[in-house]
Amino acid sequence: MSALQSEIEELWGRYRNDEIDAETAGADSLDTLEAFLEALEEGEIRAAEKSGGEWEANEWVKRGILLNFGLRENEAYEYGGVDHYDVLPLRETGDLGARGTRNTPDGTTIRRGAYLGSDCIMMSPSFVNIGAYVGDGTLVDSCDTVGSCAQIGENVKLGANTLIGGVLEPVENAPVIVEDGVSLGAGCRVTSGFVVRENSVVGENTLLTPRIPVYDLVEEEVIYGELPAERRAFTRFVESSVSDHDLFEGGAYKPAVVATDLETETLEATEREDALRE
Predict the structure, then answer these.
(1) Sign of torsion, CA 154 159 161 165?
(2) CA nearest neighbour of 65 among 82, 48, 81, 79
(3) What sign has the CA pseudo-torsion 100, 106, 108, 112?
(4) What is the pTM of this model?
(5) Structural domain includes residue 155
(6) Are strands 253-261 and 231-239 parallel, antiparallel or unpaired?
(7) Distance between CA atoms of 131 and 270, rounded to whole angstroms?
(8) Rounded to an integer, what distance in angstroms lies between the CA atom of residue 212 and that of residue 204?
(9) How are beta strands 75-79 and 82-86 bridged, if at all?
(10) Are 22 and 73 in contact (CB under 8 A)?
C-alpha cells in the first residue's frame, strides 16, 4: 500500500465517522487531496484497472474522489476566461502540449483529476470529468461527455454527441470501460459499468447498458454488460413480452444490440484520419 493510499484511507475513515468535514479539514488534509488529484492527472493512479482479463474498481481511488467533494467548500473559480462555482477548479492544461494533446477553444472542459494521454484531441464542446482516464491517441469529439471514473483506452474514437456514463458510488462498482481501438459512432450511449472490448465498432445511436441484451451472433449467445472484442454492433428491436397486449396494436418491441464479425470495409471506414494530427 502506497503512502498516498494510506493517507486517503485514513481520511476516508475519519470522514465516514463524522470526525472531519469541509469546515474542519485542515491544510494537511487538503494537501493530501491535492497530491491525489495530481496523481490522477499524471496517470499514476486509476479508478479501475484490468486484472486477469477483468476490470476491477480501485475502491480507495473512488473514495479519494468522493473526499474531494466531501472535504471541500464550494467557491468561485476562473480558468481560461470561464467563471464557475464548484468544489473543484478546472484542470490546468499547460502539460498537454508536451504530450502532443490538444483541446479546441470555446467549450472543451477538463475537470481536475482527469487524465489525458498523448496525441489526444478534444473537440469543442466536450467534457471530461474527475477520475476519467483517456488513453493515448483518442479522439473526444464535439458534444461528448466522458463521465467520472470512465476508462477510455488508446486510439479510441468517440463519435460526436456520445455519452460515456460515470460511476462514483457504490465505490466497489467498476466504471464504464472502453478498451483500445474501439470506435463509437455518433450519438452512442455507454452507461452503468458496461465494458466495450477492444477493436469493436459500434454503430450510431447505439445504447450499451447492462439492462439491454447483446445478441452475439459470433458465439451464438445472449450476454449482458459487455460487448466482446472485435465485433460490429448496432441496435435492433426484438419482440417484447407484452407484445400481445390489447393496447399494443401491431406488437410491442424493446431495444437490443446485435454483434457480428468485423468486416474489412467497416475497419477501413473507422481508421483514424492522420491528417487531423499533423
Answers:
(1) negative
(2) 48
(3) positive
(4) 0.92
(5) yes
(6) antiparallel
(7) 28
(8) 16
(9) antiparallel
(10) yes
81 is a domain residue:
no
How far CA 186 is from CA of 18, 37, 149, 256, in Å, comes to: 45, 31, 21, 18
Which H or E run contains 68?
helix 59-70
CATH at residue 10 = 2.160.10.10
Classify residue 278: in a domain, yes or no. Answer: no
Residue among 238, 269, 163 at smallest CA distance from 208: 163
Sheet holding 144-146, edge to edge: 108-110, 126-128, 144-146, 163-164, 189-190, 207-208
3-state secondary structure of 163: strand
The SS3 of residue 9 is: helix
Question: What cell was used for 223?
Answer: 450476454
Per-residue pLDDT of the chain (278 residues; tens, 9 = 90+): 799 999 999 999 999 999 999 999 999 999 999 999 999 999 999 999 999 989 999 999 999 999 999 999 988 988 877 788 898 888 888 888 888 998 888 788 999 999 999 999 999 999 999 999 999 999 999 999 999 999 999 999 999 999 999 999 999 999 999 999 999 999 999 999 999 999 999 999 999 999 999 999 999 999 999 999 999 999 999 888 887 887 878 888 889 999 999 875 555 655 645 544 45
Q: How far apart are CA 233 and CA 24, in angstroms?
A: 51
Domain contains 22: yes
Closest CA to 129 of 162, 73, 168: 168
Tally the domains of the chain.
1
